Structures are given as structure tokens and as C-alpha cells.
Amino acid sequence: MNKGVLSVDEALDRVLAGARAVAETETVPTLSAAGRVLAAAQRSTMNVPPLDNSAMDGYALRLADLKGAEPRLRVAQKILAGSVGGALAVGTAARIFTGAPIPEGADAVVMQEHVASEGEGIVVKKLPRPGEWIRRVGSDIREGDAILSAGTRLRPQDTGLAASIGIASLPVYRRVRLGLFFTGDELVMPGDPLPPGRIYNSNRFTLNGLAQAFDCEVRDYGIVPDSLDTTRQVLRRAASECDVIVTSGGVSVGDADFVKPAVEAEGELLMWRIAMKPGRPLAFGRVARASFIGLPGNPVSSFVTFLIFVRPFLLKTQGIAEVHPRAIQARADFDWPEPDARREFLRVKWNARGGLDLYPTQDSAVLTSTAWADGLVDNPAERAIRAGDLVKFLPYSELYR
Ligand code: AMP
Ligand code: MG
Ligand 1: distance of its center to the CA of 299 in Å? Predict the structure, then answer.
């Protein structure tokens, strides 16, 4: 690597070395725990299902009572889901519905389609196998089973699973407070007229959306003009209110780039040039007790560097154990004959043949590419791609979790 330039992995190692999980936990109702990070592993204190129950609408019976080709049984009771029947008398069947407990003595359920009614009884047209249509006690979860690991973000199905074993509240890490601000005198908010030479503040929307996708508590300080004093003021305020501050723009070495001197004046800063495309300048430091990450202003670069660096940093801060995205080996249905000397993150999309198409313009100012894409190909420096090659694909579905 060139002097003063870090590889993506070196920069990521340093970023992660600076991240500490929030210590505080809180207990929240399971109903509002989706998206939160579980702070303690959960075990089941019960069996699921808690009793043997029927997997079908039909008749519970005893196989030993079935004599002959089309045996007849008297229907002596009816068991609905939510009620418990009596023991099955010899020579009888119980009308039973899906989810209802199997009565004592029954050893199979015959589905209703396989019987004919006859007066008070039924004729069994197709003999069930032993245990047929019976869901056994504990067949899903056994008492004592580990069901959810600490350090994972709870998905809707995880909260459903916790609820299925009667867990009404869950211990989670407190939310990370993420401060955002956007530097640049050229920035204008959508809704306001756009004077010549100005641009809309698209990063505000992309970065707010990302912060929300990662379940942060967002403090948005808006547009900060290119001035050292104002930048320092906003930094001080954000540092007093947030765990992490993420900014866009102002980290190059241009005349109007005040983020670097402002962070240096208020805290500590490391400036890195990273051998990646898009991306390059990244600032990492600390202001008071808050961590600071300064992303490039360029919209594609700030999006990609957020996903590659801020995402794992945030996940670690949130208490998540596995912070690296899982990549997929996928087939490139495109050529990339002139690779860069830096590691590239190419915007690609799944096609109907199960391969990846490339957005035609990979210019880092073209935000359209990020919206069109389904994810990024992580392409090593200098590696040419030919159609048919397997490449390392990072789908957004992995990068957003
Ligand atoms: P900078 O890193 O401040 O030199 O900005 C690099 C490029 O990104 C410039 O073309 C800026 O106009 C553009 N840019 C900076 N901030 C934003 C933003 N919040 N939204 C959209 N574009 C931006
Ligand atoms: Mg700027």
C-alpha cells in the first residue's frame, strides 16, 4: 500500500478497534422489541407445543380399536382448540380440530376427508398410521432450549418466537444516539428553490434513512455552513448529545473543508486516504465522549463508506456480535476490463437469469446507480472481470442488517 494510504481492511480494523458496545441495557415489552439488540440469551422455560395436539381437523382415535377394512367408531366427544377433552373411551373417537389437545388414550388422528359420517359415528375409510397428524409435545421447542442469542438484532419472527414461550419483555441494549450533520454552503433543502450553483442536500436523506434502518436514535443538526466557528459549535453540541457523530463533506483538503480543523480543535482526529473506489477520504476521531466519523460529501461515496465503515462501527456499538456482512459468490453477467488500482465497490443488480448486471455508469457522482442496484460487488484492486466470472457480491439485504 502507498504511504499514507490505508487498505479498506486496515481502515476497518482501526474503526472497529475504536468502537465499544454501549453498556446500558433496558427491558422493553416484547411487542416493541423488533429492531433492538438482545442483551442476554433467552432459554425456554416450557415445551412448545405444551401438549400433544392435532395437526388437522378430524377424529382422534385409538388404533387398536380399528378392526376390519372400514371400521366404525362412535363419536363420544368434541374437542375444540383451547379446551381439553376427557380420556378416550374404548371403541370411541373424538371429533377434534387443529391445535386441540389429543385426548388421553388416542394414538392417531384421521383427517375428516378420510371418514364418512354414519348416525352417531364415523366409518374410517383410510386407516391412519401410528401418531399420524399428532404434533408432539416439545417437538418445536423443548424446555431448556436456547432460543435467542445475545448480540443479535431481533427480527419480527424472533419476537414472535419469544412470545410463543410466554416471554413478555426482553433485555436489550439501549439505542445508540447518532448525530448527523451536512457541510457545504452549496446545499439546499428540497422544497426550497435551487439558486444557480447550488445542489440539494441528498445525503441528509440517505444518511437519515440508513441511521433509521440501523435503529439509531437520530439527532439531525441539518446543514452546517462552511465556517470553522459554526462547525465547532455544532460539533460540541452534538458531542454532548450523541454517542456517535457522522458527517458528510468537508473532509477533503479544499479551502472550504472545515471539518478536519474543527474536530482537531474540539477533540482528536485521524485522517485517512483509503484505497477504495468510491470513497477515499475518511475522517475518524473523537469529540469529548462521542466518536466521530467524517464521510466524503460525494453522495455515492458517503453511501458506500457508510455501509462499509459506519455500519460495522454502529453494529459493534449497538452490541451486535457479528458485524461483518456475509458476501455471496455470484456470477457476473458483465465485463469489467479496466479495473482500478483501488478496491472497487461496483453497483450491480440481480437479473432474471440469477446473474449480476452492472450499472453502466460507475462514476461516484451518479447517485442513480445506488438506487438502481441491489447491492455492491466487492472487487479487489486490479482484478478484471469477464462475463461468467464468480464475484464477491454484497447484497443490500446483507448490508442493511
Ligand atoms: P466535499 O467532500 O465537501 O468536498 O464534497 C464533495 C462533493 O459532494 C461536492 O460535489 C459536493 O457538492 C457534494 N456534496 C457534499 N455534501 C453533499 C450533500 N449533503 N448532498 C449532496 N451532495 C453533497
Ligand atoms: Mg464541501
Answer: 7
